[in-house]
Design brief:
Number of domains: 2
CATH class of the largest domain: Mainly Alpha
Shape: globular
Low-confidence stretches: 4-11
Protein name: GntR family transcriptional regulator
GO molecular function: DNA binding; DNA-binding transcription factor activity
Number of helices: 9
Domain HTH gntR-type: 17-84
InterPro entries: GntR_C (IPR011711), TF_FadR/GntR_C (IPR008920), Tscrpt_reg_HTH_GntR (IPR000524), WH-like_DNA-bd_sf (IPR036388), WH_DNA-bd_sf (IPR036390)
Keywords: DNA-binding, Transcription, Transcription regulation
Length: 228
């Protein structure tokens, strides 16, 4: 009987954990897709309505989201989505710079020739399309996906789950900054050109050159976010 009881407790605990993770992932997804806007105030009930997740799970993951700097509870006002200010911009880009400069140096040594050829091809194709005519919203969304995928590949190549988790949280903040301060819309040509410079540096298999190239690219994005 004790074994049955223990199994029941473990099953309930597993279900609770799954609900919490689903609630967390749902809010992250809404933040990335701009269903929640930077600085917006919401209630727990609104989080439930907009994510479709149970109230208990939402309540349990709020402290986690607060510790990650994605939400904050304001007395008498509710829950505020991370507000984009100069401090957030500086800290998010500094964190990104530290991680990506090291990650791309390793990527320059480990990435296969096939991977680099694929990256160059998709960037050159998108650049040619953007130079030829104005892009549709769907094409700009595809360009944004190419942008994010390149940077994610640098981090994923490390094979370090702790770094990947921390980078993912910071990426959510960066995407909030993009939605508030600047977007790739109308900037596909310079972004693709900067990425191609980074890819060229990686192709040289020189870690220092690759690190310098990605650092210059991130600095350009940071300056844009601070001046818009």
């Amino acid at each position: 009987m004790d074994e049955i009881a223990d199994d029941t407790i473990r099953a309930k605990g597993s279900d609770t954990l799954k609900l919490r993770e689903l609630a967390y992932e749902s809010i992250i997804e809404k933040l990335i897709s701009h269903d929640f806007m930077p600085g917006e105030f919401v209630t727990q009930r609104q989080l439930v309505q907009r994510t479709g997740q149970p109230l208990g799970a939402i309540r349990e993951i709020i402290p986690r989201l607060e510790s990650e700097g994605l939400l904050r509870t304001v007395p008498q006002r509710g829950i505020q989505i991370a507000h984009v200010d100069l401090n957030l911009i500086r800290e998010a880009f500094q964190f990104r710079l530290f991680l990506e400069k090291e990650a791309v140096a390793i990527f320059a040594r480990s990435a296969s020739d096939q991977t680099l050829a694929m990256l160059r091809r998709e960037h050159e194709e998108m650049l040619a399309l953007a130079l030829a005519r104005p892009l549709t919203p769907a094409e700009e969304a595809a360009a944004q996906a190419i942008d994010w995928r390149l940077h994610d590949m640098f981090i994923d190549a490390l094979g370090n789950s702790i770094v990947s988790m921390a980078y993912r949280v910071n990426s959510v903040k960066l995407r909030l900054i993009r939605s508030e301060r600047y977007r790739i819309d109308g900037r596909v040509v310079p972004v693709m050109r900067e990425h191609l410079s980074v890819i060229e540096a990686i192709e040289s298999r020189d870690p220092a050159r690759a690190s310098e190239a990605v650092g210059a690219h991130i600095d350009n994005a940071r300056r844009l976010a601070l001046t818009v």
